[in-house]
Amino acid sequence: MDWPRKIVSALKANDICSISFIPDAVIDRILKVAEKDPYFHFTTLAREEEGIGIITGEYFAGRYGVLMMQSAGLGNCVNALASLAIPYQIPFIMLISQRGELGEFNACHVVLGKALRRILEALGIQHYTVNREDELETILNGAIKTAYTSDRPVAVILSTALVGWKDEK
Amino acid sequence: MINRLEATRYLVEQLSDEPIIASCGNPKFDLFTAAEKRKANFYMWNSMGMASSIGLGLAMACPGRKVIVLDGDGAILMNLNSLTTAASKAPPNLVHIIWDNAQYQITGGQPTHTAGEADIEAIARGAGFKQALTVNTFAAFKEALSQILSQSGPWILVARTDSSKALGRPPKNPVYIKNQFMEALRSA
How does pLDDT run across B4-47, given as a tens digit for each residue? Predict the structure, then answer.
């Protein structure tokens, strides 16, 4: 399983040096790889919505960022996406760790997990789901390019088919 | 009480081309009225609360330059968690000014919690800011600003203001606002 390294390599290859995040077990695996490279700047958020503002401010100064969060976190981001990132045309990638689908043990993650893609679609945000490691680089590189040519945020969703799920019953 | 437009005018006079992020609500009206030709102004038309986060991101990404955030009490109360993030990252060039008139002025003057027990300076200190001030008069504002602009931050300045209204209205096209602001940042 080499998906964390592939994600970090793709971010660096695309000049994305700033990582704003709320951690989970999946994101932690990405961070553990990225932390070994001084190229990256890290900002631990207290709430996911902050990341939209921080990435916007960084973008103004020419620094490119990625927002890493669980699917639940998208619910905390909706107004900042709708009234800042989209109308002001701020390009960035949201890397979303999927909850509420394959292998979910927690009913309180299921509703937003199921609504995730429809919320993105209602906002007009393109989204792509990675289910297999062999499609990861194509999807991530392609999503980043689309974000920058369209000046819009684009979501890449990491499925539990790729990253696994908790064995809790 | 401080007149917000007068204080905004004074602030801009002390600056050269430092970027200013102006929150939705009245801070952006004051800034445009005070300095409509100034290109390094970013006007927010919504995303209430995000000014502090935009300012933090900008301050981290351009460390050589002071970054000014003009916020309101209602807006920062909506994104208090951002104070903990900013204090944790602590960029020394961040200057976060909060105009506190203890009301949601733009929607008719309904009281915010700073009209009651909430104290933004105390909240900022609790979030981890080492340098936070509250001023009640224009003379104290000018004195605080002199210290803030000449010393390392990050700084929080809570300025208790009245609720007079500025008449200017910034451009309403978000992409125009962004492009003008980014061009000013690049050419500075």
Answer: 999 999 999 999 999 999 999 999 999 999 999 999 999 999 99
Residue that has been written with the tokens 């905390």 in this structure: A76
Our CA-based measurement puts residue A131 at a distance from the nearest CA of chain B, in whole angstroms, of 32
CB atoms within 10 A of CB A22: 20
pTM given for the model: 0.98
- Residue B42's CATH number: 3.40.50.970
Give pLDDT tens digits for A56-107: 999 999 999 999 999 999 999 999 999 999 999 999 999 999 999 999 999 9
Task: Take residue A128 and report the two structure tokens written for it.
Answer: 């792509």
Query: Which of B46, B52, B181 has the CB atom closest to A60's CB atom?
Result: B181
Closest among B139, B137, B158 to B52, alpha carbons compared:
B158
Is residue A105 helix, strand or coil? coil
DSSP structure string for A140-158:
HHHHHHHHHHHTSEEEEEE
Residue B88, chain A, CB below 8 Å: the answer is: yes
Which of B47, B57, B174 lies nearest to residue A54, judging by beta carbons? B57
Task: Please tell me the distance from the alpha carbon of residue B45 to that of residue B169, in angstroms, as a whole number.
Answer: 11
Which CATH architecture does the domain made up of A3-111+126-133 adopt? 3-Layer(aba) Sandwich (3.40)
Beta strands in chain A (DSSP E): 16-21, 41-44, 64-70, 92-97, 127-130, 153-158
How large is the ipTM?
0.98
Ranges of each domain in chain A: 3-111+126-133
